[in-house]
Amino acid sequence: MARWDGQIAEALVRSQKNTKDDEEEVTLAPICNTVQDKCGSEDKLSIPFNTRSYFQAKYNGSCDATPFGTGTYECVDYDQGALRLGGQTLSFEVDLSNDGCGCNAALYLVSMPQSHDESICHDRYCDANNVCGVRCTELDLMEANQIAWVSTVHVADDGSGQGFGYAHYVFPPEHRLSSPTHECAYGPSATCAIDTRSAFVAAISFSAPEELFSYTVEISQGGRSARLGPVRYVDKPQMGQYQTAVEANAALRASLDAGMTLVVSHWAGPKKESMGWLDSPCKPDEITGWACTDVFVEHSEWEWLCPVEDATPPSCHNPFTLTDVAIHPNPAPPPPPIAMTTADLMANVAIGTSFGVLIGVVLGYMLGARFGAQQRPPKAEAGEEELEMCPVAAEEDNMESEREI
What we know:
This protein has 405 residues and is an alpha+beta fold. The protein contains seven helices and 19 strands.
């Protein structure tokens, strides 16, 4: 089903209800397990509409055919789903080709392992928006459709959070998805770096436990890419107890290191405009009232943009798919520059100078020898050379000959 630290996750457990307002009653049971009864191929997950499900590394079958609403919460051990992703990268391929305006395909982390309160959704689900009556830390890694992608951090008491990506409420350009090659980083068009009409790969990398909290998102497709982050609080949370971004990020660090549950959901509002906070441009009164300038306003020429107001129901009933969900260590950072003291530097300079002098002497000797060889007269016959090179010796030989006569 999915690689889980090198192993296959045994189950994806689905909640009874996606939200407190759902009327449909669903059994809390594995929708995917080692038998592959409902998942299709071994590495591909099909996420039906109006569902919320929790990844479980281990599953013993205790929740099979156990309807919730009976007051028991004991069949799921949420500790089995706790992920400690500090220094890790979560990667997956996602196909959002069925999800247009008004749809939300979501993959996120919540602090369910530390939540022991019964929710009104008949399980132990919690999040920062109090969807089922219990609040906890929430890291939205992906809330997306073909038009929009947003990654948001929430401390437990900040339902608004701080978002990055292509979305209605992401205003600063430095918080948006960006591509090194395309002006449009993401959208249902061949003119965008990521053409969301086809599947693409996402890699979400978390800072190491000893570092300040953050994560980055890189999405790629056919040699093209887009990136956002680091995702973390840049400003003070809009609500709640934390008074600075530093305090909020420290709380997120603690939650991530304690272990969080990976959740996948697929949902929408009753009307397309219900998801306007994600995928529609700022309304005219927002633009004039508080200078709303999201990427959709800046690129009104994009023909695929969602209407600002649309009361028609969204068409999200076909599943979206996740393939090759995997967790692996972050790539090793480049080695730091070598620290060197002044004494080390002077010693290296002295060594380098001595070596340079030695090289100069050797080169000088070699060049001098070569120059001397070039200036030497042509070699004569042996006898002539002896007379020329030793004239005194030649004169002595002549005098000796005269005495003998």
